[in-house]
């Protein structure tokens, strides 16, 4: 069950991380997969089956967006999310950033290239 929850969180984070990937490149990533999961874990129920976005989801998405400022951090967050993407509904997960007021200039998808 924890693996499914982590997978859902990763998919959500991929969307947010890809949004941030356009920044200037810096040294190694400082963000960890554990941190990424921590930021988006409350979004998992919505990412799986829709309904109402949990109250702690959007603050977590915005916090992840703020924490992943460098290109390496965004790429790392994207990779973390992709590794956990099973068990979620892509349309629901893809809608989370906009529902939380976070702008993402690309389509959220399991095929997102985290290197770009």
Automatic annotation (TrEMBL):
GO biological process, one term: lipid transport
GO molecular function: lipid binding
Segments forming domain Bifunctional inhibitor/plant lipid transfer protein/seed storage helical: 33-114
UniProtKB keywords: Lipid-binding, Signal, Transport
Family matches, as Gene3D superfamilies: Plant lipid-transfer and hydrophobic proteins
Residues annotated as transmembrane: none
A Pfam short name: Tryp_alpha_amyl
Function: Plant non-specific lipid-transfer proteins transfer phospholipids as well as galactolipids across membranes. May play a role in wax or cutin deposition in the cell walls of expanding epidermal cells and certain secretory tissues.
Sequence similarity: Belongs to the plant LTP family.
Protein name: Non-specific lipid-transfer protein
Species annotation: Acorus calamus
Name of the gene: LTP4
């Amino acid at each position: 069950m924890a693996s499914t929850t982590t997978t859902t969180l990763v998919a959500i984070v991929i969307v947010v991380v890809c949004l941030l990937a356009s920044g200037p490149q810096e040294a190694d990533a400082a963000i960890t997969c554990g941190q990424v999961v921590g930021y988006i874990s409350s979004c998992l129920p919505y990412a799986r089956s829709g309904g109402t976005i949990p109250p702690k989801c959007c603050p977590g998405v915005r916090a992840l967006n703020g924490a992943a400022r460098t290109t390496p951090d965004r790429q790392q967050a994207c990779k973390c999310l992709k590794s956990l993407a099973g068990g979620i509904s892509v349309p629901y997960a893809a809608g989370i950033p906009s529902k939380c007021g976070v702008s993402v200039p690309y389509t959220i998808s399991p095929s997102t290239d985290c290197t770009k």
